[in-house]
Amino acid sequence: MSKSGATNSGASTEVSEQAELLERGFSAQSAPADEPRSEQVDIVTPDDFFLPDFCAPSMVLAVVLISELLAVTLTLARPGEVGFLQELARVSMFMQWLGLTGATVLCYSRRWLARMTVPMASLCAFGLLMLLTGLVSEAAFQLGRRLSEAGLGEMMFPGERWEFLLRNLGICGIVTAMLLRYFFVTHQWRRHVRAEARSRISALQARIRPHFLFNSMNTIASLTRTSPKLAEEAVEDLADLFRATLKDSARPLRLKEELELSRMYQRMEALRLGSRLQVKWDVAGLPMRALVPSLTVQPLLENAIYHGIEPLDGGGTVEVKGSVEGSDIVISVANPVAVGERKISREGNRLALENIRQRLRLAYGDRGRIDVEESPERYEVALRFPHEE
């Protein structure tokens, strides 16, 4: 008996020490640290560049519309000797020519510009568009003069050559400077919004971790009295779980990793509940490379076990199903509900569901949501989010 008691006492001490280390590590990760971190180099990629992708069809359409709007404005501001429609057609042709060639130049030079600093890239983009405006203006003026000399119509762009060139360069310079400033300010605003969203996601995930940690420690504490060996295995599983979740809370996980975390948690709970806990997984049809915010599926499984399976004397089965509906991924977690536990279960689930709902909204906007279906015998939660890799 004394040997067995010594074994239990030693195992309990070891579990307590490992738990203390885990909590200490958690506190170090959760609390704001004053210690300097390793410096990270912010590399600007073409996808994170302040100039939009002018190769995209939406941007080409925007260039066409803005060029036409500018043509209408210039025609109204400077009525010519010919009729309004004829003058508008002439100015529109020139503006579309200039706008589409400018979009083409920025499309092919974007990757090169992205390697520069923002001031240098802005200066180079401004210079390229000014040079292009001069070349297109000269070509348009010479073409109009040749057609007029050939007797094919009136002078397309009447007036002095240098007056025509300087006027176009002046208008181009003002419009280009305004657009570059607009692109930069919009890009900075979007980066700020993304950074704030990542910060809020990290804060929400930090709030959900203590709940997960304390439930896990309760599981380990109950095992130390009955099976020290299983308690040691549970501590090791918990360490692996925490190591995985503390890597980078703002970084989304592959769906395969998130499901593996959930399975690790299931194995740890199975040590405590034994045959009372059954989990049926039906996720073979899910795209495992899809991205999902970390600690999204695991808390649902945790709630299903603690508020659904544990109160049942005979235990029960948690059903985890996954499917793809159009461009969305749907993952549902369902558990039986014990008589008299429905209200308690609802209150216990509320905080975790609201936490996950906010993180999905921050990550995916209106496309990320949680649906809940309740009945006297069953409680089901379904996650819906877009398929992104």
Explain what the structure shows.
There is one protein chain. The protein is of the alpha+beta class and 389 residues long. The chain has 2 domains: 2-30 and 204-386, Heat Shock Protein 90, CATH 3.30.565.10; 46-159, no CATH class. The chain is 64% helix and 11% strand. The chain is built from 9 helices and 7 strands; from the N terminus they run ααααααβαββαββαββ. It has helices at residues 2-30, 57-77, 84-113, 118-149, 161-226, 228-245, 255-273, 298-309, 342-364, and strands spanning 253-254, 277-282, 291-292, 316-325, 328-336, 369-374, 378-386. The strands form 2 sheets. A 5-stranded mixed β-sheet has the order 2-4-5-7-6, covered by helices on one side. The chain has a two-stranded antiparallel ribbon with strand order 1-3. Strand 4 and strand 5 (328-336) form a beta hairpin. The two termini are 57 Å apart. The model is unreliable at 1-44 (pLDDT under 50).
What's the topology here?
Layout: H1 2-30, H2 57-77, H3 84-113, H4 118-149, H5 161-226, H6 228-245, E1 253-254, H7 255-273, E2 277-282, E3 291-292, H8 298-309, E4 316-325, E5 328-336, H9 342-364, E6 369-374, E7 378-386
Parallel strand pairs: 2-4
Antiparallel strand pairs: 1-3, 4-5, 5-7, 6-7
CATH classification class of the largest domain: Alpha Beta
| Rg, nearest Å | 32 Å
Which second-level CATH architecture of the largest domain applies? 2-Layer Sandwich
**What is the averaged pLDDT score?**
77
- SS-based class: alpha+beta
CATH-level-4 superfamily name of the largest domain: Histidine kinase-like ATPase, C-terminal domain
